[in-house]
Amino acid sequence: MVNYFYWLEKPWETRLKLAEAFELKRVAGTVVENGRVVSDGFSQEEIYKALTIEKMQEFTGSDETNPVKLFDLCVEKVSNIEKKHEGNETAELQHQRTETDERGGDEQKTRGRKKKTASRESE
User: Fold this and answer.
1) Is the residue at 50 inside a domain?
2) Is 99 part of a structural domain of the chain?
3) Taking CA atoms, which of 15, 42, 63, 75 is between 20 and 30 Å from 23?
């Protein structure tokens, strides 16, 4: 069983990915007391039901039996998914920039040729 406060220590985006992976639904809004999140809207009971050793083992593909270690593996897995997704976006942006630079370079070369041709015609 995962300690609820250990759950809350994880970044919001990570908890959302875990909630999606384990089909958790928010049952309330976020509760903040003295500048500290004491509830993120996911109930402790639902988290305990969803994050069983068996389900976490299935999600991670691990045979680990320590629930804290398993939870950390789940966090690592969703974090790697996020990083991989961010990496794909970065690679796509770099590819787009390269294509734009190549096209821009071609346009500049073409424009340069037109200028030379135009100046020759005026002679």
Assistant:
1) yes
2) yes
3) 63
